[in-house]
Specification:
Blueprint: E1 12-17, H1 27-41, E2 44-49, H2 50-63, H3 85-89, H4 101-114, H5 116-119, H6 128-135, E3 145-149, H7 164-171, E4 187-197, H8 201-211, E5 216-217, E6 225-230, E7 239-247, H9 250-265, H10 272-275, H11 282-303
Helix pairs in contact: 1-9, 1-11, 9-11
Length: about 325
């Protein structure tokens, strides 16, 4: 059976985008070709940038206490078994650890937090279909900027826990985003707060009221918040927060990808790797570029309205 048989099934995609220094020369082609399919067929896309993951891992490493030799090591809580899934799947440095394990763990934790409401009880659980309903105002503008806090597991990294209010502030800081963007300086179309752990609804409301004056929301959706509260915290943490924001800042990431694509495409460099494949021709590239330009324009045009006064449409007059 195909997805078409399940009309209420939302298609979420976690897409990893290459950094500017990616060692795959054709990665801009791959990204733009894939984005056309994501724009046309996905319900929600959570873009993740390789460079953002690298920067987050470096930040976590710098937070670790140094040893006498000057090297930073990973500590394990006595309550956690050394060979448990927790320690082998988070920030613990084991001899078998592969180079990209820490980066992959960040993405895995994002998915765990995203689906926590479907797996655990909570006083205000969110159905995944509600995310598409509340965060996607227009069909093709379904790219969500994700951030999460804390970025590490306190059972593995001996760093004191952040205060609850600080956790909410961290989630909106640019160094916690899964993309190299700063949403605070762009326009929010909608935002979801998915909280786990020992947190009250009043805590969420208080922090929304505290943060809202510093965030720019589109004038037709100034109360565009979606909140969820799952009672079960991640292992080794008292609470956690995943934010999903439909924000116009994402057009900067897409513009960078388009620029790298254009540098190759205008010289027809490396196209033979694709056009020699049955079923592919130049129209796939031009159509994909056109689709990307359309998405960029949609977000950019909305961002231009930031700070502009709301235009009130005249009300219809009933003839007497």
């Amino acid at each position: 059976m195909t997805v078409g048989h399940f009309f209420s099934l939302s298609r979420f995609v976690t897409a990893v985008y290459p950094s500017a220094e990616d060692d795959v020369i054709t990665s801009p082609y791959n990204s733009v070709l894939a984005m056309r399919e994501l724009t046309n067929h996905a319900d929600c896309v959570l873009p993740i940038e390789n460079q953002a993951l690298v920067d987050i891992v470096n930040k976590i490493t710098q937070a670790l206490p140094p040893t006498k030799s000057g090297k930073r090591v990973y500590g394990i809580s006595p309550a956690v078994k050394p060979d448990s899934a927790l320690t082998t799947g988070t920030a613990v440095g084991s001899p078998e650890e592969k180079p990209f394990d820490k980066m992959n763990n960040l993405v895995a934790n994002l998915l765990l937090n995203l689906t926590s409401s479907a797996r655990f009880e909570g006083s205000l659980n969110i159905d995944l279909n509600e995310i598409t309903m509340n965060l996607v105002p227009f069909p093709k503008m379904h790219y969500l900027v994700a951030s999460q806090t804390p970025l590490y597991c306190m059972a593995d990294v001996k760093v004191p826990p952040r205060r609850l209010d600080q956790m909410f502030s961290d989630a909106f800081a640019k160094d916690h985003q899964m993309l190299k963007v700063d949403p605070k300086h762009s326009l929010y179309l909608a935002c979801a707060l998915m909280v786990r752990g020992n947190v009250e609804l009043s805590d969420i409301r208080r922090n929304i009221d505290r943060l809202k004056p510093n965030l720019n929301f589109v004038h037709w959706n100034e109360e565009g918040w979606k909140t969820g509260l799952c009672s079960v915290a991640p292992v080794g943490q008292p609470y956690s927060l995943l934010t999903l924001a439909n924000n116009t800042c994402i057009h900067n990431t897409f513009t960078d990808i388009r620029d790298r694509f254009t540098k190759l495409f205008k010289r027809k460099a490396h196209l033979h790797h694709y056009t020699q494949v049955d079923g592919m021709d130049m129209s796939d590239f031009t159509d994909s570029l056109e689709s990307l330009n359309s998405v960029i324009a949609d977000y950019y045009n909305l961002e231009k309205t930031m700070g502009q006064p709301m235009v009130m449409e005249p009300r219809l007059q009933i003839a007497s």
